[in-house]
Amino acid sequence: MSGLDLQPTKLGNKEHWDDVYKGEIANFEEIGDEGEIWFGVESVEKMVSWVMENTPPSSDPFVLEVGSGNGTLILALLEKNYLAQNLAGIDYSADAVKLSKLVAAAKEADVVTFSACDFLYEDPPHLPHMDPTKTDVWDLLLDKGTYDAIALGNKDEQGHSPAIHYPSRAARLIRPGGFFLITSCNFTEEELKVNFISEATGFKHHSRIQHPTFTFGGKSGSVCCSVAFQKAN
Ligand SMILES: C[S@@+](CC[C@H](N)C(=O)[O-])C[C@H]1O[C@@H](n2cnc3c(N)ncnc32)[C@H](O)[C@@H]1O
Predict the structure, then answer these.
(1) Ligand 1 atom having least distance to the Cα of 39
(2) Where is the Methyltransferase domain (predicted)?
(3) CA 48 to CA 53: how far, in whole Å?
(4) Predicted structure pTM score
(5) pLDDT tens track for 59-107
(6) CATH fourth-level superfamily of 8-231
(7) Cβ neighbour number for residue 228 with a 10 Å cutoff
(8) Rounded Cα distance, 178 and 84, in Å
């Protein structure tokens, strides 16, 4: 990707993402470039470390990335010996799904499932060995930049962002005791806690990932934050 485009109507819009991934597919087919990943490599590494510590490969967790883009994050887990059959990514851009499948095939990781799915309105397809009668089947949901993008979508007639639907959609898919790990550059840790922790979602704060900090005008902060929530048992 060419960088963070902060125009709200563009980032929150499916046509924008289709255009982005069409360009990246062309790059990939021409020069094998997988495209830039959102928020850079360190965020991926830090999220992968958190996943390894909290849902280790030995537990064969079912892991879903919401808004998986070119598939970098979920494919990084494969390199850490997670069971490929238990890993999945969804994206509402069919071109993102096409790109992630091309990238996976180049890494001989075709077994990882990438599907076109609008997270706010559809449930992701079940993987083999999942109980087909249940919806809350995932041990871990990952989000890197997708909640941010959704929050920039057009507001409804009541002035609500489409992101208000996100927390309940996430909670619906996670098994009791399972985790949701989110990395955001648009929301602070406190804002994420307010938006995700509620009786309705059953989410409790679990942990955070420390990102590099900066100090400006006497105040310190981070460019991005990553927060993990655990769903009540
Ligand atoms: C900022 S990008 C992040 C991509 C990837 N996670 C990364 O870090 O490189 C946001 C992604 O969310 C996807 N997306 C936005 N709204 C979505 C929705 N409602 N359902 C599924 N995917 C969505 C976009 O197509 C895009 O791939």
Answers:
(1) 8
(2) 63-198
(3) 9
(4) 0.93
(5) 999 999 999 999 999 999 999 999 999 999 999 999 999 999 999 999 9
(6) Vaccinia Virus protein VP39 (3.40.50.150)
(7) 19
(8) 19
